[in-house]
Amino acid sequence: MGNPSAGDWTNSLESQLDYYRARAAEYDEWFERKGRYDRGPEANAAWFREAEVVRGELRSLQPFGEVVELAAGTGIWSRELLPGADSLTVVDGAEEMLAVHTLNVPDPSIQRIHADLFRWSPDRQYDLVAFGFWLSHVPKELFAGFFRLVSDCLRPGGRFFFVDSLYTETSTASDHELAPVESQFQRRRLNDGREFEIVKRFPPPETLRNDLRELGWDVDIRTTDTYFIYGWGTRKG
């Protein structure tokens, strides 16, 4: 499939949202390395060890102040954000994900917003904007627009934090085949066999760093040995 133009992503993004709505009940199998995502003791141990490195880096940014988490999913990173936050607002485009989030992180103080992140505008500002495993689902042509949203969400001096996937075969399910690293699309399969095409990008750390600097961000971007890219940033000046 060829890459759509900047104004022609509707069908691709709708397919992506359909996939995550359908995947909500099984999503945590991926992060917990269960079922099709179990890659054996050695790979699983590396995954959990590297995930803990990212958690530790996130905790080092505490106190977080008032936080908004974009594409919060089932709450994997909300659990890490909540203890250091004065307040936590989470946004996701899939009601099914938010339903699982409520079960996984049943704190009544959390504000949950169901909204398409490519159309949503915040009605207030925050000290920290966090997004886990979301940036790779933003098409290159919509990258600058997404970071305008991040900027709109932040108070002066506020920060963003992100974590995402490196291009690694064992990061995904055993019955998935990664498309070439330069592609913006991946085929993904659910446990019941249904397949979807989603946006999935793997920009190298230096490319991501340069792109963000050109957009006016001071950033610190790092990787773990095999699985994760992560970092934080503030607006220049």
UniProtKB/TrEMBL annotation:
Assigned keywords, A-Z: Methyltransferase, Transferase
Pfam families the UniProt entry points to: Methyltransf_23
GO MF annotations, alphabetized: methyltransferase activity
GO biological process, one term: methylation
Membrane-spanning segments: none
SUPFAM superfamilies xref list: S-adenosyl-L-methionine-dependent methyltransferases
Entries under PANTHER family matching the protein: TRANS-ACONITATE 2-METHYLTRANSFERASE-RELATED
Protein name: Class I SAM-dependent methyltransferase
